[in-house]
Structures are given as structure tokens and as C-alpha cells.
Amino acid sequence: MSLLHHHWLAEQLPAWEREGIVTADGARLLRERYVAEPQGGLAQMVVGAVGALLIGTGLIAVLAYNWDDFPRWVRMALALVPLAASQAVSWWVLQKDEAAKPWQREATALVQTLAAGAAMALVSQIYNLPGKWTDLVFWWCVVSVPLAWVLRSQAVAIAYLIGIAIWTVAQVTGRGFGFSGEGADVRLWYPLLLAGILPLWPGPKLRERPASGSRLVLAATALLGLFAVAAFAADRPAFWLTMLSAAAVLLFPLDRHGIAEPLARKPQVLLGGLALVVMALIATYEDPARHLVKSVEFALPLAWCWLLLGVVAGFAVLAFRQGRFAVLAVAGLAVVPLLAAPLSGKDTSGWPVAIIYSFVLLATAIALIALEFLGRQGAARIGAALITLLVILRMADADVSLLVKGLAFIVIGVGFLGFNIFISRRRAALPGGPST
Amino acid sequence: MRPALAVFAVAVAAQWLLPLAGIWQYERVIARGTTVRLECVAPDPYDPLRGRYLAVRPAEDRVPKPEGMVGRDAVPVWATLEAGDDGLSRIKSLSLEPVSGSTVIRLVAKWRLWEGQRQTSPETVFVEWPFDRLYLNERLAPDADKLVTERFREGQDRPVAEVRLLDGRAVLTDVLVDGVSIREIVKQRAN
Description:
The structure holds 2 protein chains of 2 kinds.
Chain A: H1 3-18, H2 24-33, H3 42-64, H4 72-96, H5 102-126, H6 133-150, H7 154-175, H8 186-194, H9 212-234, H10 239-250, H11 256-260, H12 267-282, H13 286-299, H14 303-321, H15 325-331, H16 336-340, H17 351-373, H18 380-397, H19 402-429
Chain B: H1 3-32, E1 34-41, E2 46-47, E3 51-55, E4 57-58, E5 62-64, E6 75-83, E7 89-95, E8 104-110, E9 114-115, E10 118-119, E11 124-128, E12 133-135, H2 141-153, E13 160-166, E14 169-177, E15 180-181, H3 182-190
Helix pairs in contact in B: 2-3
């Protein structure tokens, strides 16, 4: 829960208790359920992070200028003195423990991270070391992530997540498809590097949660990293493995507070679901559907595929037990190619699978709407949008006159807007106001 | 000591260890290594973290496949260099096993099926040299690039990479044009 909402609830609860709207136990339960996210002065943190970022990037730019006229030892001192100074300040902040302000922790962690990167870059520059800059990013991430843990720095954590995703993508793009022997094995490295964030989120007491912006970065980079690993594992564009990766992100287990949160605060559900739906929509066309079924054939012998299937199955069981039927309905889109593959012969048309996908998408959309009407956590608006999109796509393909298409689009648009108004009124009429 | 302080101490040690290990390793090669000169080509690209550099690629990048090399995977190989009458070193022999000598350099060999549109000989491998750039001041780098391009267009001698070798490890120390450091030439031109 955001700090603003938490303040509002905290102000209202005593009055509600006095007026008998909630009991003392009920109020206690509400306070426990809707805890404020540890923001620690967001504005202060942002100011600290921006200041640190300016100092650090300035430092890197000054060093990258390449002070040709200075002897080597002077250039080394230029790189290592800022590192030592930033480490000393971080040590001082760390000693203050809880007395340290959030912006101090953010700023020192970020400056030290940038100073460490600058030192490594300069040594590399002095000795004309070869290698891609993304290799430097890897080591930079490895030596910097402990600062995110101990100084509880969201900025360093975000930089780390972006850094490991960039490195992972670089391993795949640098290697190219159909050539083995170069680049690190990201099937092993990416999960290992991603696990590097665990000491911060959820932390040793399993209580820490990323703030809203960090959640978005975590979900987006995890999705990107897993897509890259899928391409690496298959040694070719891996349509189906990409779908399974998106399903794993979408189904990532949540506790009951997480489940109760609105969709906007669950970027892994939003991005994972969006990726799956977009891929499924693409697969409603003949050529992509044929490639999708073929990618199942290529993927099934791979250990990474079975690992992903195991993870998705495990997450799906948990989601079922928690009653997360809406996400299960969307995740089901990733299973279609596996079920359709045995039905499609070699070198056959992709039309059967494309048609199956159209119907499965329609069924998914209906499920999202029906769940909401059945009092479950659904997504009626998203369901309606999906049906609208499907009809638009099919109408665009259809061999009918422009006039018919135009009229159909008007009818669909009116229907969609009408449904939205109906859902808004229905939600407003429900006790407890709008829900997602 | 609090666990956070211990973790911080390890991070600090790692942040020092990486640059210092590099400094120690490469200072040793510069101080005690053998100097060799290799003919090379050198255009001018940019690294987002380390600034401008002159890309240095030794002209000798295709050599006969070493005995015992199978498959398409990139493998480390040890090349023994020999200086010719012109003072430039070339690969004399290539081995899959480590060999010793003052002019031995560790390279990576790989076999490519295609080079552009042309199919390559299965008996030839490509070698990757352990240096590919000479960092230059951003003010000087474009001039250095121009100098190299001009010489290439006019068919003059290619630039020469000056490299120090020790225990198979290499550090690129300079790029020479007609025996003079490219840094000095472009500095003089700028003045």
C-alpha cells in the first residue's frame, strides 16, 4: 500500500472504531494487512540518487576523456582515489545503521558503485585491454550488488538488474545463432545473477518488498533476461520457450497481500500477461503459428525447456490453490502449442493452430469477464479489450467491403465503450467500491 | 562485526581486487615482457564506458589449422612468433598445448564455415588476438583514424602494433606508423 493511502487509513481507523464500524480486532487486522511500503522519504531518495548519478557519471566521463599527458600512476590514482573516498563515506553511513537517512544510503551506494565501475574502466583503458564493454558491466554488477544489500539501495538494485539483463542479452546477440563455443552459458548465469537480488528482496527476514518503480524494473528485466536465455538455450529464435518464460513471470507466486493488490501494482502479471497475449495474437496467423509449432519440436529435447515447464507447472499449482484463476487462464495460452504439436504433421499448414489460438484467446477473454461476474478476481475490461482486438484483427483480414468493415468497427467500438460503462457502474455499486 | 559490515568489507575488497589484479598482471608484462611488432589495421570506434580507441587488428588472422583441432568450438591455442627481416613478427607455429618461450602468445582459434559470402577452407582457422584496441584521448583519436585511413588509401605501409609478451600474456603498448608512435604523430599534427 502506498504511503498516501496508508496515512488515510491510519487516520480513519480510530474514528471507525469509535463509531462501531469496525471492531478493535478488525482494525488491528486492517493495520496488519495494509502496511505502508518502506518509502523512507521518496523525494529524499530520488534527490540522493540523482545527485550521486551526476557525480558518478561525471567521474566516468572525465576518466573516459583519456588523460594522455599524465603518466600511468597519476591516471591510476585518478581512478582509485575516488573509489577509496566513496568507500570511506559508505563505511561511515553503514556505521550509522538505522540513523542513516535513506538519501544518504542511496547516494553513497550509487557513488561507490559508479566509482568502482570507473576504476575498472580506467585500468582497462590504461592497459588497452580487449573485450566488450558488456563484459565490464558483468564484473561491475558482481562487485556492486553487495552495496544494494547492505545499504538497502533501490537505485543500485535497479542498476544491477538492468546491468545483468544487458549482459545476458549481449551474450546471446554477440554469439549469434548456429555457432557454439562463445559467450557465457546464460542458462546458468542469468538465474544465478537474478538470485543475487534475493538478499535485498525479500531479504533475510523475507519481509522486504521492492517499491513500485523497482518492481517494474524487476519484472521487465526478468522478462528480457529470460527471453534471452530462451534464445540462447534453443540456439535459434525460440517462440514457444519465450511464451513459457512469459508464463513463468506471469505466474510468479505471491502472498495474500500481493494477490489483493491491484493489477497496476503487479507489473510481473501485467508484463508477463501482455507478452503472452501479444504472442498468442501473432500466432493467430498462419505463418507464425507454423513456426510456433515447429519451435515446440526444437524445444522439447532441451533441459531448459523441461526446467521451465517444471517451474510453470509448480507456479500454476500454487496459483490454482490460491484461486488466481485469471492469471491461470492467461498462462494457459503458453500450453496451446504443446498440445497442438502432436496434432500437426510435418510441413503442414499452420492454419489449424492459428484457428485454435483464435478460439483459445476468445475463451480466455470470456473467462476473464466471467470470473469477475462470479465474484472472483477477474479482469473484465481486459477480457473485453481482448475480444474487441480479436474481432478487429479478423475483420481486417476478412474479404469484405470497406463499408462493412467500417460499420463493424463502429459497432465494436460502441459495444466496448458500453461494456466499460457497465463495468464501472457495477464496480461502484459493489460494497467496498471498485476492485480489480 | 555486524553481518552487513562483513559483506561491505568483502565488496570493498572485490572492488579493489579487480583493478589491482589487472594492474599487477599487466605491469609485470610491460616491465618484463618481450617486445614484438605486428602489422595491423586500425579504425577508430567508441566504447561507452572507456572512451575513444583505435581498433587494432593484426593483419595475420587466418592460419593453417593446428594439428589435432576438431569441431567448430573456439579453442585456446599457443602461437610462437618469429620476427622477419622487416622487424615484424609473424606466427611461426600454433599449438593446442601450452608452449613456453619469450615470443609465445595465447590466442583463440575458431573455424568459420563462411567469411562474408565466401566458403572458407576447412584447413584454415581464424585467430583472435588478445588485444583489439589502443585507447586514445578523444581529441586525438579522430586524427589518428584519419592518418591510418589516408595511409591505407595511398597504399603506404600499414600501422604496426607494439606488444609486450610474457608467459603467453600480451599487453598492447603502442601503435607505430613508420616506427613512430601514432600518439606522438597526431600530437605534433595538432600543435
